[in-house]
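Q: Hi! First time doing this. I have a protein sequence and I read that you can turn it into a structure. Is that right? Here it is:
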Amino acid sequence: MWVRMRGLGTRTRIRVVRVTNQLAPSVSAAPVCVLLLAAIWLSGVLTDGAAYNLPNYLVTTVLVFLVGAPVERRVGSLRFAVGAIAAQVSAVALGMSFAALVGAFGLGWDGGLGTGGVIGGYAWILGVLMMGSASMRTLWRRRIRVGVLVLLVTMALFRGLSQDVVLLGAALTGLVLGPWMVGRSAGGARLTGTRREGRVLIALIVAASALGQMFVALDLHAVGPLAVLRDLFAGTEWTAAQVRDICASGIDPRECRQGLLRLRLSGIGPTLLSVMPTLLLLVIAEGLRRGRRAAWCAAIVAYLVLIVVSVLNIVLRYVHAADVGSVFYGSAEMPGLHEAVVPLLLPVAIVAVLLSMRRHFTVSICVDTCRRVTTTVLATATGLAIAYVALGVAARQGFDRTPTVPALLADVPERLVPPVYLQWLDPGFLPTDTITTLLFEWTGVVFWAAAGVGLLKVFVTSAVGSRPGAAERARELVRGTGGSSLSWMTTWRGNHYWFGEDGESFVAYRVISGVALTTGDPVGPAGSLRHTVIAFAEYCTDNGWIPCFYSVTAEVRAVTDTLGWGSVQVAEESVLPLGELAFTGKSFQDVRTALNRARKCGITAEWMSYPSAPWVITDQIAAISQEWVSDKDAPEMGFTLGGLGELDDSEVRCLIAVDEHRTVHGVTSWLPVHRDGEIVGWTLDFMRRRSSEGFRPTMEFLIASAALLLQEEGAQFLSLSGAPLAKINPVEDVGAMTAALGKLLDVLAQVLEPVYGFRSLLAFKGKFQPRYEPMFMTYADPAALPSIGRAIARAYLPKLSGREGFQLVRTLVYR
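A: Yes, that's right. Below is the predicted 3D structure, encoded as structure tokens:
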């Protein structure tokens, strides 16, 4: 290898060696995968298959390392080899047997089943994946099985080629072999699950039916029994004038009608309009995933419409077939009965499933959002109708027949209907130039696009809100019961509140991107923590949200660990016990220096309440804060980091550093920490110092002064709060996904350090020799981590404008 690498540069050789060293453990731990992959490439090279189908071989290689190797390490090489061989052999046998069965019954599907083949190792890879899923935890086992089966069944029913049936056979073989070869996991073998998983299953079914129709519409070779839209893209080479000439001759009425219908289906606009209902089903599927009752109703209505259309099509073909031509199924000839009836079975089956799962869809939509969207859609429809009539009158010479204003008005509804559903109606006029073609073909596309976007907004907007007085009730519970050192942050604006059944505990949260993101630990009696966590998680699931506890203590993490949740450390809290605190010794040299310098400069520390402070003081604090934000050259963060708005609280104490001229050099704010109705400690929140001509060690002076003053008052501890993404004693991450997330957060902390300085802040707090306690984020669903990450980013930067975002990126790049 080194001889072949001799011509490469030093850096390139080093990289190759590193990659080889990283791949070596995977190769040694998955020898069967390596042998099978080598056999695939060898056969491809010998038969020139790799040259003609290189992308398939590359995809197979990737799947072997991403799917095959992990499964082999999980189940063992011997079981893996048996499962791979069994899946490959049985898949081909099942595919051939099914093709023969279909041919024997003359269902017209056997032609597609007799063509093509399975290239690469897709069959055995899917087989061992389904086999290995038997040993996985319930959540991932269910998701892998449902996802794979829905995809393969959709491909088989809609596209219907031999490789689709073979792959489905391989997956079913692996599904049967799993419990027998590798056993069942401790999570049990039931495929039924929580309400959220039921919603995901129904959403997958609806999305698969929609994507299957789009797939066959794009694949003109699709031959599956449900490939009813494959000819929606089939247009005609005739012009409107030619079709009118055919109709005027009266020689062939059927050809006249076929020409008119195909003119409607020709062009990009009609094509997009024809697939708009399918796109709308995808939007409805997203609403179903979120548990929206409105999405369930919309799905029922949509599939009932499809059922009615299918029934009308059957009646049209078998009752009036002699007089009326149809292109609904892309064929002018009389189809077999099964070709007309089978497409009817899909919407009937989905409606039956939706009705049986009705109890899972209980989440209400936001009424205000629905009202605004409805108004917008109606206004869009009205505007399009006015524009269509006005422009149609102005360009009436661009139609093959000159339309009147009433004719244009009557034609507006037809412009909003997908043309494939207009086969029973003859067009009154057809466009012949560019302007009229745009009006005729794109009016409906614009309307459906607006309706789809509006409907999606209705489904994704959460109907979240707290009852009147919830914030004050939460504040009373914090005072009476207490909680963690961050509990007072639950009283900040922007939070919503969920209260337990007994009314003695609550969780503060905010819903962002479908994630219910909490602020610190639940507040309530210590003995109710587990019940509160479980009840709040169930509440989130009922509302279609993803629960995520953020900046919580080890006690909450211990509870969620017993529930099978994942967790990752997101910060480290610095706690300063005040019992015997004395800033003596070498370790406190910087703190003593700050206190001594302040005394010499005539700077003193004074407690104040921001709401009742003199204007001359609050104005200086506001100016200092603005100066600090400007120096950062980045937007100010929120969520667990307070700003000026959080100072406006009579129960929050501010300690300011002022000189003899009443000039404010710095300010800190302290949040009360309650326990059993008494204040036992204080948490540092707001920290700002005058950067221009100010007393430099202001923060050391203020924190040390606060510690000494509060010690005299009898406080037990000070919390210097946690610095996001900064850790002194990182907790070891358990699990591959959690470890990967932890590494990602470390990289993010390194990137943000030049701007926000979280690690520097944590190092600064180390001057006070605090005790470090980890803070965690716990989550129920690892697959939701991208949504959780987006929610956290929006929580910290809720009002990030485009200009500020650009400025932040520029700062990160150039610093």
